[in-house]
Amino acid sequence: MSIDSTERAGAAAPARTQAPAGVNALVRMTGSGDPEQYVVPDEGARPTARKGTVVVEVEAAGVSYAEVQMLQHLHPFPPKFPFVPGYDLVGTIVEVGPGVTAWKAGDRIAAMPRQGAWQRYVELPAKTLAAAPADLDAALAVSLVTNGVTAYQMLHRLTRLEPGRTVLVHGASGGVGALLAQLAVHHGLRVIGTASPAKHDTVREFGAEPLDYRTHDLGAAVRELAPQGVDAVFDHIGGSGLDVAWKMLAEGGTLVSFDSSVAGYRPGQWFRPHVPALRRTVARWFTRHLGLTGGRRMSMYYVKPGKAFNTDYAELCRLTAEGVLRPQIAGRHPLGGAAAAVRALLDGTTVGKHVLIP
Q1: What is the pLDDT of residues 283-314, one digit of tens each?
Q2: Per-residue pLDDT band at 4 (split at 50, 70, 90)
Q3: Which of 199, 198, 276 has its CA nearest to residue 235?
Q4: Are strands 209-212 and 190-195 parallel, antiparallel or unpaired?
Q5: In this structure, are residues 182 and 326 in contact, taking their beta carbons and an 8 Å threshold?
Q6: Listed residue (20, 22, 13, 4) closest to 104, CA to CA
Q7: Could you say which of 124, 206, 291, 311 has the lowest number of CB atoms within 10 Å?
C-alpha cells in the first residue's frame, strides 16, 4: 500500500530514531557547460531529520534529461548553482523526525525531490514519499519513479485509449519511451516507436514497430504505416516537431508534449526551449473549443507527487515484478562517476536509464 501522509489514523507516534552524525558523500553541479568540468564529487554534512521529515540512505538515484537541462541552465525551473542534482531516488529510511507517524526507520521508499538525490543521505518531507517494494532491484525501482509514472499517467490518465488504437512514441528506446512502449503494447495498442536504427531490435522486443526518427519526411512515413493517422503522439522533443506530430493525428487524436529538447539553445536561455510547446498548447486549446481541430487536442504533461503518483508507482512495481515490464538500465555508476553518466546520456548511444549507486 502506498502512503502519502505523515499521519495515519489511529497510529501511535513512534519515538524519534536518530542516525549518527557524519560526512555525506554527494555530487554538486557548479555551473553550465561540460559535465566533466561542472559535475563534481564532493562531501557535506550528513543531514538530520527535522519536524515532518525523514533521512533516507539512497540506494539508487536516477540520471535524467532534467539534469542535462539543468547543466546547461535550460531547465524551465532552474536552480541556482551550485546545487546537488538528482530528480528521483529509492532508498531506506534511517531517521525519522518529530511528527512523522506513517514511516519508520527501515522502511524502503521512493521519492521524486527534483533535485538533491545525488548523495548518500538526503532529508525528505515525509508526505512526499511512496512505498517501494523491499525485494525489487534498486536500479529497476528508481527507473519507475519519474520515467515510469510519467509513461503510465500519460497513457492511462491523460489519453485513456481503448485497446486496438495506434500510437506513436518518440524516443521508444529512452528512459520514458521504453516503458511507455511496453505499457502501451500490454494495453493492447499498436505502437510505432521512433529510435535510431541501432536500437530498432530493442524496440521490436517491446512489441513496437520501429521507425528511424531521422527519416526525411517522418510524417509521411507514419502515414504509410497508419493511413488514417495515429490516435496519440507522445513527444519529448518539442519545437517545430510538434507541428509535424499534429499532422500525424487521426480525428479525435491527442498530442502529448512531455519535454523539450534543448539542442541549439545557449546556456542560460532557461525558458526558451519550452515556449514552443506552451504556445502551441494554448493556441490549440482555443481552436479546439472553436471546433476547428477535428476533435484533436494537445496537452502538456508534467509529473508531480501525490496520491495518484503513489498508486501508479505501486502498479508499475507490480507489473515489473510479474515480468510484464522490463525496465532498461543503461548503466550503473558510482557517485563519483556522475559526470560519465551524464556524458553517456548526452551521447545518446545507450538504451534506457542511467542510475547512480551511492
Answers
A1: 888 788 778 788 999 999 989 989 999 999 99
A2: very low
A3: 276
A4: parallel
A5: yes
A6: 13
A7: 291
